[in-house]
Amino acid sequence: MTDTLDIKITKTSKSRLAETDFSNLVFGRTFSDHMLVADYSDGEWKNFEIVPYGEITVSPGISALHYGQSFFEGIKAYKHADGKVSIFRPDKNAQRFNKSAERLCMPTIPEDVFLQSLAAIVDVDRDWIPGAPGHSLYIRPFMFATDQYLGVAPSKTYKYIVLLCPVGPYFTKPLRVKIETHYTRSAEGGMGFAKSSGNYGGSMFPAKKATEEGFDQLIWTDAKEHKYIEEMGAANAMFVIDGTVVTPPALDTILDGVTRDTVIQLAHDFGVPVEERKVSVDELIETARNGKLNDAFGAGTAATIAPVGSIFANGEEYFLTAPENREFSQKVLKTLDAIRYGNAPDTHGWNYLVS
Length: 355
Ligand SMILES: *Cc1c(COP(=O)(O)O)cnc(C)c1O
Fold this sequence. Notes:
It is a single chain. This protein is α+β, with helices and mostly antiparallel strands. It has 2 domains: 8-168, D-amino Acid Aminotransferase, Chain A, domain 1; 175-340, D-amino Acid Aminotransferase, subunit A, domain 2 (D-amino Acid Aminotransferase, Chain A, domain 2, Alpha-Beta Barrel), CATH 3.20.10.10. Helix content is 24%, strand content 30%. It is built from 7 helices and 18 strands. The strands form 2 sheets. Strands 1, 2, 3, 4, 5, 6, 7, 8 and 18 form a 9-stranded mixed β-sheet that branches. The longest helix is centred in the middle third of the chain and has 16 residues, at 197-212. The protein binds pyridoxal-5'-phosphate. Pyridoxal-5'-phosphate binds at residues 74, 195, 231, 234-236, 255, 257-260, 299-301. Pfam families: Aminotran_4 (PF01063).
């Protein structure tokens, strides 16, 4: 543990809190009053500051724009009934943040500095955390390269910023998903495990094509054979097959999701068997056909659980039971909400309290 992080705080003179409609929040569109910024140069992190949310000035020559040295994280903070504020498992995000940084030749941030930076900005804007059921504060830490240099080489300077967005419940109808067998999100040896900005730019075109074909989401398959399930959009693909939770292992090509890990731990708590193993498209279709696919969903911080309504593969659409009748994901959602909002014992130590 390093010493308390020295953060200069400049508060806004014009809060936008009063004019914000907290009953109609669209994910990622509303930003809080402040943001945290820090710089990296001469081999160290410095200038940690909380300033009013607003535009920043950078050179058009920064390599983040040209070569994609840029990545992000996504975390949520919750307001408890007694007014306490907690951030959900940010230590996991701190670890992943540094994995992404290393893959992109970018500087890491000590875990406790990362945690202190989140706590500080959340504390300043704690009035921005909606208290209504299903609401939370989405935290978006990110880092990008700031050297003005058009050579393809790691930058020597970087910016770290944390933004906050109040968000409402992520209601999603059961998704109509398509198994993608041409485009790929990541390949072995690539950077699929990193929350690297470029991964998302590359996924938009196939996602757009799927939307034009009438689907809500894609299920990515492996880059080599398109035989095995990888992820669902920007969420981890999870299934309940004949009473067992099954999900592909989060190795090289799959983002190691905090929600995925949380769901796995809850399954253990419930006494539900879990298998982290390859899931073939054939197995998925076969189990959907014979009624053994009890549940299928995308797991991620934004939605927690995004239920799959139907799966389209090889020219056929396979329908699943209605989400409200799926025992496992319903129980996960209920249990998780109770923990995150401070209404159930936090036996795993998942809530990082902001004092
Ligand atoms: C962020 C993300 C996830 C989900 O990770 P969480 O930590 O659960 O939010 C899964 N897959 C991809 C590709 C992601 O970007």
